[in-house]
Known about the structure:
46% helix, 17 helices, eight-stranded mixed sheet, alpha/beta, Four Helix Bundle (Hemerythrin (Met), subunit A), N-(1-d-carboxylethyl)-l-norvaline Dehydrogenase, domain 2, 15 strands, five-stranded mixed sheet
Amino acid sequence: MSQQRGVIGVIGAGTMGRGIVQLFAEAGHEVRLYDTQDGAAARGRDFVADLLRRAADKGRIKPEQMEATLGRIRPQSELGGLAGCDVVIEAVIEDLGVKRELFRALEPIVGEHAILASNTSSLLVAEIAAACARPLRVAGLHFFNPVPLMKVVEVIAAVRTAPETVAALKQLVEGAGHRAVVAADQPGFLVNHAGRGLYTEGLRVVEEQAATPAQVDTLMREAAGFRMGPFELLDLTGLDVSGKVMESIYEQFQHEPRFRPSSLVRPRIAAGLYGRKSGEGWYRYEGQSRVEPAAPRPAPAKLTQAAKPVAVRKAHAFKPGDTVTEDDIRAMPDSAYMDDVQLEYFRGLLLKMRNEVLARELDVKERLHQREVFADPADRATAEEEHWLDLRLRERESMLLRKIDDALRRIRDKEYGYCVKTGEPIGIPRLLARPTATVCVDVKGQDEKVETHFRDR
Ligand SMILES: NC(=O)c1ccc[n+]([C@@H]2O[C@H](COP(=O)([O-])OP(=O)(O)OC[C@H]3O[C@@H](n4cnc5c(N)ncnc54)[C@H](O)[C@@H]3O)[C@@H](O)[C@H]2O)c1
């Protein structure tokens, strides 16, 4: 049966590769799995074995079925092991250079009739195919996570993909019980283009402190009827993977503002908060179970200790849902220790405060307007007094607004402290009071002695 069904090669034994292997092995194909990481292909097979064993224990599949499926999965230690495959599906990291190099190396290994498909989420298939001598047989085959359960697969026809290649891939997908939808080779194809509304807006809501990730997720599930909210989905996909998709779609849409990736993403990727795969993302996980909403990560212990003389209570006190007052900001000491995640919360607090100031301004404007229209001449004296008071208030507020904007700009331009040793941002100079200062912390020698000084730019 496996011979009639054609041999499938899968490259990359990560989240997607393992799912693709399971789908086609269960559908009766011989599937060869290759990954550059030592032992990853074998671990990929073990992963599928574990899932199938659980399904067998629950009586969802027969033990013989499980054995037969596992017998069709063949881990390979070299790319050359994919010689003779009819279709090879690539599910390696989302990097154009890596994918192009891989396709270039693969082409002479597989026969001329073989189809090469990429599971890319966001790269243009035509750009991958351009590395190949025979782009006619190259297409996109975009699965969704988890592959065995997500029944739709996008088949992407690049500019030079032959119609027969598209037809063969449709047949392959449908033969495995999934539904194939042909989509154009355009940024994000269909699903990831539409999905920007969910991810990008969800992130923006959190960035502006309008709601927490858990609140957004609950709303999207319970009011909008989604199976998962954007943050749950980001944790499932992996922020390292989704972050690249966000950047790539933004690039491909020529920096259209509505696709701008949220500034919350990069620091979280840098901190390894990928989601389920790293044990923590927007939520915390133990095994496959969610344990609690993630709190801001504490600063790395070594640096916190080392930086104690300049470390700051305020910075550590900031957390989602906090409010910050003008006095808090004025009271900020010369240097505040913040890692990138805390810095993002601080930024969120500033944005919230900015919104409040703007709302107050609107309120004052509205009151002045009402008075102009409806004031009783008898009340004029009081009204004029109030008017001047309002103006003074507006003046004060607009100064505050300027300071907030300046602080936001400096956060954006990374004008805050950094550790000389690691190059990581570690502190904020008194953002509002010392516009030209950069705080530097020198970590010297083995004993990590810390010296803090200001350097004027
Ligand atoms: N995670 C998702 O939800 C999702 C959904 C749809 C599409 N995708 C796309 O699928 C692809 C893989 O995503 P993932 O989440 O499975 O990634 P992953 O990080 O879980 O796995 C990638 C695997 O590829 C291996 N690898 C890297 N370079 C390689 C190379 N040159 N040759 C062989 N193996 C190599 C890595 O060792 C790793 O095991 C990406 O293009 C991603 O955009 C991901």
